Amino acid sequence: MRILITTDIEGVAGVVHPEQTRPGNPDYERARRLMTQEANAAARGAFEGGAREVLIGDAHGAYRNLLPDELDPRARYVIGKPRMLGMLGGLETGCDALMLVGFHSRSLATGVLAHTINSSAFARIWLNGQELGEAGLYGALAGERGVPVILASGDDAFAVETRSILPDCRFVVTKQATGRHSAISLSPHAACEAIQTGAREAMTATGSTRPLRLKTPVQTRLQTMTPAHTDLFCQWPTLQRLDAVTLEYASDSVEHAVRVLNCLSAMAAMLR
Ligand SMILES: [Zn+2]
């Protein structure tokens, strides 16, 4: 079994503030170490559960957060951007199952540091009328290739939101969200133990976990944070503006839909 563990930072135990997610300060340096430890915990559980090969994907910000010299030496590390499959870099090499570590709830929802791909540009995203956050979008991208999400970790709001989208997935709750920037968190040590156990147990369910499959063609609706973002994004000729802050486009696959979103996110940098 070949497992991809894709790792974000906002759902990691002990992380609640934007400073902890942005390079350039000591809080971030500690948070990236906690993120590395949670990725390693999932890798240990995957190996204990019978994984032959583990890829650990870095999927936050510039995709250069995990500390390579502290990673489980049995795993390989997927690092850097841009890359075709965004947060799921490495999936293109062929994987049997996916684990989402350190994930968070979607933009404008409750939960610690909730956002979807780009916190300053994207307000809400629907695929075929279903509102999705990062776990749903990338769960569907993996599902299109027949790959199920077997484990997801993050705060309790993320678990509640995502359970309805990924009903067969095992969730590990690392903290209880008490606000956007506050939580009652497990200690990093306890969170890692829970993730390792969850990953080991999730491995036994790989065969019975259904991939998330959306109907194609996929209609994506995006609500932006400001009208200026929709002004900018609709320079792209095939995107259709619905109102001041909403646009739509059609895709023949989830991969196409997600890649367009990631291109729009990159374009949005010019409005900062
Ligand atoms: Zn992130």
Structure description:
By secondary structure, the protein is α/β, with parallel strands linked by helices. It has 2 domains: 196 residues, Dipeptide transport protein (Rossmann fold, 3-Layer(aba) Sandwich), CATH 3.40.50.10780; 54 residues, no CATH class. The chain has 6 helices and 12 strands. The chain has a 7-stranded mixed β-sheet with strand order 3-2-1-4-7-8-9, sandwiched between helices. The mean pLDDT is 97. The site of zinc ion has 4 residues, from loops.
Counted beta strands: 12
Judged by helices, strands and strand pairing, the structural class is alpha/beta
The rounded Rg comes to: 17 Å
Distance between the termini: 43 Å
Written as H for each helix and E for each strand, in order along the chain, the element string is: EHEEEEEHEHEEHEHEEH
| Overall average residue pLDDT | 97
Count of domains: 2
